[in-house]
Amino acid sequence: xxxxxxxxxxxxxxxxxxxxxxxxxxxxxxxxxxxxxxxxxxxxxxxxxxxxxxxxxxxxxxxxxxxxxxxxxxxxxxxxxxxxxxxxxxxxxxxxxxxxxxxxxxxxxxxxxxxxxxxxxxxxxxxxxxxxxxxxxxxxxxxxxxxxxxxxxxxxxxxxxxxxxxxxxxxxxxxxxxxxxxxxxxxxxxxxxxxxxxxxxxxxxxxxxxxxxxxxxxxxxxxxxxxxxxxxxxxxxxxxxxxxxxxxxxxxxxxxxxxxxxxx
Amino acid sequence: xxxxxxxxxxxxxxxxxxxxxxxxxxxxxxxxxxxxxxxxxxxxxxxxxxxxxxxxxxxxxxxxxxxxxxxxxxxxxxxxxxxxxxxxxxxxxxxxxxxxxxxxxxxxxxxxxxxxxxxxxxxxxxxxxxxxxxxxxxxxxxxxxxxxxxxxxxxxxxxxxxxxxxxxxxxxxxxxxxxxxxxxxxxxxxxxxxxxxxxxxxxxxxxxxxxxxxxxxxxxxxxxxxxxxxxxxxxxxxxxxxxxxxxxxxxxxxxxxxxxxxxx
Lengths: 264, 264
Hints:
Shape of chain A: globular
Number of helices of chain A: 4
Oligomer: homodimer
CATH superfamily of chain A: Acyl-CoA thioesterase, double hotdog domain
Number of strands of chain A: 17
Order of helices and strands of chain A: HEEEEHEEEEEEHEEHEEEEE
Strand content of chain A: 35-45%
Helix content of chain A: 10-25%
CATH class of chain A: Mainly Beta
CATH topology of chain A: Porin
Largest interface: A-B, 54 and 55 residues
Number of domains of chain A: 1
Structural class of chain A: mainly beta
């Protein structure tokens, strides 16, 4: 199994100019996971802004990424007291893969301040009673490095019995149980099967146009719980809203993506 | 009253380089509304990409905008078959106000295709039975050009009786009843009072860090209905989720912003 930290490393060639590698093992059918690609870009942006954590980050997906070298060009557009804002472009062989805009800061502050949470982590059976993808049974390579355990009620699509609910809930950790940092959360919010798999719709795949993630805190060690849902399939688009909670029951990330809804 | 179309006009000086004006009358206490500023940038991006409508657009707010001239520099990062992706920077006197990333396309397609909507427009009393801000009574200048009518249950904050619910619902139209296009929707999602006004919290204002809007369709003529809610006040941040529905009951926009939660 691979290390997320090693496989998202970047090298700074000169100010604003980075080199990285899309490693194999983070892909589905040869196309790198969108959250994994974004984590590489975000690492370059964090380095360039001198801020450890994305606070809110948006990626627009331009072309699928295949294993191999990539460049990341980062431009810092503002450095403030608490935050730095940067824009970035990831390219492979001169072709743009990803355009990113993010505000970076430091999420290790222990003073949470005011708290009012009108939601809760999803109720899940223990990981061993959930549905796990097995690479040895033909699951995509990604699931060798990402250990997903889906709520059995939401995993029916895998056996041809979709729940009918636009919802997917489950556990997330890295395959080698490497701690998940805020860059790892960018992968977590893009690793689960699309909610439309459970929808009894003639839809095979929903390509992501744009993915925005808000990061609220660095996760505590241990399994993460995540929940994804969609409410609006219309006009050829669907949104997917995600929440990720850490092992202490704290909300650590909120995501929303806009995806295309091509019919089979 | 001012025209939104005229007050968001841009002039193309050369490829990628635009000039516009932050007009007075779209501000709160002299600071231009963030959705209004974004609409100007989006008009430049729509022009540069040759696509009428933002499909998903994200703005990171860097500095408050005051009335006066602005520049918008647009860079097209991809032109595809259906969509164009562009990044833009709005500056005033060389100071960055706004950094924007958006995917643009054409939302006039009548073939809605697959529809599955798990929500509904908010139930609202007729506009005349709702709460309206009155500039002559001291409401901010914005409310001379934007005609908001808040659900009476959500307007208690205006008389010192916040509802306690992190929710604001109401009607939206332009003051002169100019039709609202997809650029106007960018203003609509940023015109309502913050949900935190209803929260019984020691919070005066919640500066927007980032605002993302998904546009699903061009609105039909008539009043728009909107609903905003927040579920997670934590770590010094709050998200605010919005939905805008047109007079035919169609979802036309979905928004989410991340705002700071400074304590009084």
